[in-house]
Specification:
alpha+beta; 9 helices; four-stranded mixed β-sheet
Length: about 475
């Protein structure tokens, strides 16, 4: 006799108190916008699609603990700007700073909102914009906490081929761009949130792909592909959509680095349709799919049906927050060294322009921008021998949620999902400020790949992070 087949096909789900609020945070169209070294403009010239701030609050069914996600349609923030935002949002929202985890969609079309840019064209609009964003975030937090209600979250897995590998060897050097010779992680995680009446409260889309469709030729404020994805999903579901950027350090869209917003919208629809496909397949919260027995027909058929379940165990909750100490990379450039290199690039750029060599001048301007960003980061790095990487991990029923600082390579999510295949794991990277920069795998150090060349933590840091997270997950 063959072994008895499984008679239940359960869907991962959670039960908690939940709320989601959002608002428009599109800055003035002529704010400082230059995000790319190769860009020739300084100010934005218009708006492709609006930017959004989304606050999501998760809380156990009983008790006062909670986790607040503040998701922003921006690329990154410096340590000072991030600290100011969190402090203001916490004060306005009436919560503790530690409860707030800021995560970024990582769109490269939103502009670079650094206070160090305030003296540049359009930069005078940055301080009041950041102030306004903090006030709006605090109001969203206040409203979300006031509207917390019991909810069921049902999770699903899908696939999307938008993301491709982007560490490309062109025969002479590594460049950051589409590499068709290496497979990419196409995992898509979705979730549908409903209240006890079955009304949909939100959808969640978790996918790893750099929002770098729009690059140096684009002068419009844009959420990149996330905008069209969100519009499509929300139009179909009638509920707001929260996007969480996965571990995409070496992943980007197949077609990217363009100025054509139609390409960004096309990329967004590709992800949106994949998300809708996965969302459509999800059953109702509080149910499981079980074998109902044989039915004699032309063949003897196996009948399955959805049955209600006791959701008490789906309310399991455990929250951990910590700072993982990652050793700084040896030989880190000094502030003095970086300033000298910046001064030299700027001087050489002026010489090239006076000689009419605009091509060389543009390259030098881009190299100067690299040094400017490095200088800004060096000024804000925490003192000591290690970088305190911010990590938030919470267990919610059948799912594990991870929010982690820095731009981790995709190994973070593929390895955690390999080790815990029976768990749904949602991973939001680009959390907190960008001081941690990239976290590439150990073997990529000293290869000249862009991401490892600007990494501030030592080789083995990503592996240490994976080990630390896995050890805590194993105790859930």
């Amino acid at each position: 006799m063959p072994a008895l087949s499984r008679t239940e096909d359960p869907t991962p789900q959670s039960r908690c108190r939940f709320a989601l609020t959002w608002c428009d945070i599109t800055p003035p169209a002529d704010i400082y916008h230059r995000m790319w070294g190769a860009a020739k403009h300084e100010r934005g010239t218009g708006v492709h699609r609006p930017l959004r701030a989304t606050v999501t609050v998760f809380a156990p069914m009983e008790g006062n603990e909670r986790q607040i996600l503040l998701a922003l349609d921006h690329c990154v923030m410096g340590a000072t700007e991030h600290a100011n935002l969190v402090a203001q949002a916490a004060e306005t929202g009436g919560v503790a700073k530690e409860e707030i985890l800021v995560v970024f969609s990582h769109t490269h079309g939103a502009g670079l909102m650094g206070l160090d840019r305030a003296t540049l064209p359009g930069g005078d609009l940055i301080p009041p914009y950041l102030q306004s964003m903090g006030e709006k975030a605090g109001a969203l937090i206040h409203d979300a906490i006031a509207s917390l209600k019991p909810a069921g979250i049902v999770y699903g897995r899908g696939r999307c081929s938008l993301a491709t590998h982007r560490d490309f060897w062109d025969g002479r050097q590594f460049v950051c761009g589409h590499n068709p010779g290496v497979p990419a992680d196409d995992t898509l995680i979705v979730a549908r949130v409903t209240d006890d009446a079955g009304t949909m409260l939100a959808s969640i889309v978790n996918y790893a792909c750099h929002p770098t469709t729009l690059a140096w030729e684009n002068t419009l404020i844009s959420p990149d592909y996330i905008g069209a994805m969100r519009e499509l999903v929300e139009r179909d579901t009638g509920a707001p959509c929260l996007f969480l950027q996965g571990a995409s350090g070496e992943l980007g869209p197949r077609e990217g680095f363009v100025g054509d917003t139609a390409v960004a919208d096309r990329n967004g629809r590709e992800l949106g349709y994949a998300a809708l496909s996965a969302l459509t397949a999800l059953p109702a919260a509080g149910t499981t799919f079980v074998y109902a027995g044989p039915v004699v027909s032309g063949a003897t058929l196996g009948s399955w049906k959805h049955e209600s379940i006791d959701v008490t165990e789906k309310a399991a909750w455990k929250l951990q927050r910590w700072h993982e100490p990652l050793h700084y990379r040896p030989g880190q450039p000094t502030i003095e060294q970086t300033q000298a290199e910046l001064d030299q690039f700027q001087a050489d750029e002026a010489i090239a322009r006076s000689a009419g060599d605009e091509t060389r001048a543009a390259d030098l301007r881009a190299l100067a921008e690299r040094k400017t960003r490095l200088l800004h980061r060096l000024h804000q790095l925490p003192l000591g021998e290690t970088y305190p990487l911010q990590v938030t991990l919470w267990h919610l029923g059948d799912a594990i949620w991870l929010g982690v600082q820095g731009e981790s390579y995709n190994l973070l999510q593929t390895e955690l999902r390999r080790r815990f295949p029976d768990k749904i794991i949602l991973i939001a990277t680009i959390a907190a400020d960008w001081g941690a920069s990239y976290l590439p795998p150990r073997e990529l150090y000293d290869t000249g790949i862009y991401q490892e060349s600007i990494a501030v933590v030592a080789a083995g840091s990503l592996e240490q992070l994976i080990k630390a997270v896995a050890e805590r997950m194993s105790k859930f």
